[in-house]
Specification:
Length: about 325
């Protein structure tokens, strides 16, 4: 692994994370079928499996972003390092977006699921805690990637720079709105559990007011960070890089489209293992579906195409980024 250049590892790691996320999601879909009765999911553990998958994707993108920044710090004129920084920033943003959507989806589904237990401990473990953990992942990755970048690119052997007043204000500007929104969501769920009434009156007003206060204070801290004195930037840095080229954009679009197709086809293949019994009239309680074992025909016709699409997305994006700068690096060395 150490024989591979750091910049290449920075590009490969988020793609490896994508493969891991895909594998975890496929396992989650398969596992969910064993906890079903009719159309009503009863397995709660599935929430943590999904959360684990999103966390793996976010942290692999974060580590890859740190490696890309270190590569660029070693050589600011390296085109591949600049492309790696742009690519890893995109993967970090996508990881944050997916984790945020997961937290909001878990929040909204808590009001629509009639199978949710009214037990306080059960709701704490299966509803509140996943939202808190997802929020913690979002805040940590966000601050680590975009606020504490100086500590990420510190040269080995040298002391890491202390946190400046600007970084403190910037960190609060990012974290306060997110944490306030998460607290408002938890408070709304707690009130809903305690009263079992719809959140369509003053409770919604309270939640929105708390979110608004968080945004106001976050804006205040962000404004303070903007007005803080900063050192003059270097003539050429990663932030001064120009817009991405057409090939880079097309490779990202290709990877995103093919990845979505792979996730969709994989989920469909997993669902094909579920066997629904014939409907019987006059029976109040219909028999639960069963899960058949994978067969060679299923592997070739249903599951293998999804795996091949995922590999095409991963290999295609990696090669499109590295090959685009190979001739450039060779000409410079010559």
């Amino acid at each position: 692994m150490k024989n591979i250049p750091l910049v290449n590892r920075s590009i490969a790691l988020p793609l490896v994370g994508l493969v891991a996320v895909w594998s975890i999601m496929m396992f989650a879909n398969w596992f969910a079928m064993f906890g079903q009765k009719g159309y009503e999911p009863t397995s709660r553990l599935i929430v943590y499996i999904y959360l684990f998958g999103f966390a793996v994707g976010a942290f692999s993108a974060l580590i890859g972003h740190g490696w890309a920044l270190k590569s660029l710090a070693l050589d600011e004129h390296d085109g591949l390092a600049r492309a790696a920084v742009r690519f890893t920033v995109l993967t970090v943003v996508l990881g944050l977006a997916a984790t945020t959507i997961f937290a909001l989806t878990n929040f909204l589904s808590a009001f629509n699921s009639s199978s949710q237990s009214s037990d306080v401990l059960g709701r704490l473990i299966w509803t509140y805690l996943p939202i808190l953990l997802a929020t913690a992942v979002v805040v940590f990755v966000l601050l680590r990637a975009f606020v504490f970048r100086g500590a990420t690119v510190a040269i080995e052997g040298e002391p890491k720079p202390k946190m400046s007043e600007r970084q403190k204000a910037l960190a609060l500007g990012y974290a306060v709105p997110i944490m306030t929104t998460a607290f408002a969501i938890i408070l709304g769920l707690f009130i809903y559990d305690a009263t079992r009434t719809n959140l369509d009156t003053w409770v919604w007003v309270l939640i929105i007011a708390m979110v608004g206060v968080g945004v106001i204070f976050g804006t205040r801290f962000a404004s303070r960070a903007k007005q803080a004195r900063v050192e003059a930037p270097k003539p050429k840095t990663a932030l001064a890089a120009g817009a991405a080229s057409l090939n880079f954009v097309l490779s990202i679009i290709f990877g995103a489209t093919v990845s979505i197709m792979s996730f969709t086809m994989g989920a469909t293949a997993i669902s094909n293992l579920q066997v629904w019994p014939a409907w019987v009239e006059g029976v109040n309680e219909q028999p639960a579906p069963t899960v058949s074992m994978p067969t060679l025909s299923w592997l070739i016709q249903d599951f293998a195409p999804a795996v091949v699409l995922l590999l095409l997305a991963v290999v295609g994006v990696y090669l499109s980024i590295t090959e685009r700068h190979r001739k450039e690096n060779t000409s410079v060395e010559a």
